[in-house]
Amino acid sequence: MSGRYLTQYEVYYKRLDPDGKNQIGAMEAATFLKKSGLPDESLGKIWDQSDPEGRGYLDRTGFFVACKFVALVQDHQDLLACNLKNESPAPNFGDATAPGAKTAKLPNKPAPSVNFLVKPEEKRKYDALFNQLQPVDEKLPGDKVRQVMMGSKLPMPILGKIWDLSDVDRDGCLDRYEFTVAMHLVYRRLQGDNIPDVLPLELGPSKIPQSLSGPVNLNNGVPAAGPRVKKIMLRLPVVFLLMFLSLNSLRWRLRRWRRCPGW
Ligand SMILES: [Ca+2]
Asked: β-strand 57-58 against 24-25: which pairing, if any?
């Protein structure tokens, strides 16, 4: 890898890992990388090459590789490991304070005109999953939600972006509304929609369907008989949603592979 901007990478790294743990969490790293303004697909590929073992975090070397790949892609060079040794301008993370950083901003892309409105039946599934995860004081801790989100197999930078949009009050937990936003964005990304840079108006609190208390009735109105059946029914939403997410992820990745067999 070219050493020309290693000092700059070090500055970035120390901001994200001030205690020298040699580890930057997935969400922190993803949040930083997306400041590059690169499309989600490129960031996903960068993540895959920077964390080849799929550990879910970046060590110092992985972070430097990620920075170099960002610089290469911004310089319109191919995202190939053999290009890491190529010269390139400094990566642009929209930050003028680091040594060597460019100050020019990348052009803002217009938000796609996609309607993200949550349908009542979708809200039922998100509510059911929220209940199954056993919230405390109507909130789920970040670790619990991250496990569910990572089950979607979406690239870390995309999950980081979704987390940023969902945790509206930045308390590291998701309440029922925030969880609905997170699950809906995961679901829509698996459907092929791009995640917007700002929360769409249709995902504002007043636009989300009212919370539906109690378990989802997946029995078409036929009452479940007995406590054991009820227990199974309570688990169904989770199984159903996870299967649904995995299936859609597989389809989406298959479509990408067909478009780009080398991916
Ligand atoms: Ca929150």
From this structure: antiparallel
Rounded distance from Cα 171 to ligand 1 centre (Å): 5
Distance CA 5, CA 92 (A): 12
| The model scores a pTM over 0.85 | no
Span 3-96 CATH architecture: Orthogonal Bundle (1.10)
pLDDT in tens, the chain (263 residues): 656 788 888 888 988 888 888 998 877 888 888 888 888 888 888 998 998 888 888 999 999 999 999 999 999 999 999 999 888 888 888 755 555 544 444 445 554 578 999 999 899 989 999 999 999 999 999 989 988 898 888 888 899 999 999 999 999 999 999 999 999 999 999 888 899 989 999 999 999 887 755 444 433 333 333 444 444 444 444 444 554 554 554 455 555 555 544 43
Q: Dihedrals φ, ψ of 175, to 5°? A: -85, -175
The residue type at 153:
K
Q: What are the boundaries of each domain within the chain?
A: 3-96, 120-257
201 CA distance to ligand 1 middle (Å): 18
End-to-end Cα distance, the chain: 22
Ligand 1 geometric centre to CA of 38 (Å) = 26
Distance CA 175, CA 140 (A): 6
CA of 159 to the centre of ligand 1 (A): 15
Please indicate whether the domains covering 3-96 and 120-257 agree at the CATH topology level: yes
- What's the gap in Å between 53 CA and the centre of ligand 1? 30
Q: Which CATH architecture has domain 120-257?
A: Orthogonal Bundle (1.10)
